[in-house]
Input
Amino acid sequence: MAEAIARHIASRPPFDAMGVRAISAGASAVDGLPATPEAVTAVDSLGMEMHEHRSAPLSRELIAEADAIYGLTPSHVQAVLAFEPSAADRVHLLDPEGRAVPDPIGYPQGVYDETAQALQRAIVDRLSEHLSATRQSS
Output
């Protein structure tokens, strides 16, 4: 859900000029699995799409290409750091307030909807931070 939401938000003003490339990958993800129907419905309810999404495993190549890496929970952040300690300065929790965004897998649709909304808020906040930093350095 985070990737689909980030791609949608990053394609709209004022973030569209930033050239953001959002990619989702998991430290223990199985390659090529589709999103759950609940995730698709939750993202659709925000007016966004993720119908073609497929899971992807984290790789050192993806980490090396990333300017910023966001984990949804502290354990996600720790998994990235265990996999590639050199990324420590680029790995953060997605929520700027430091709150975890737990995985809704196995929960009812309402939990997926709440998770999608939390992701949307956190992504807007993070993109706003990057936009502000870009404007200040210009």
Summary: The beta strands are 69-71, 91-93.
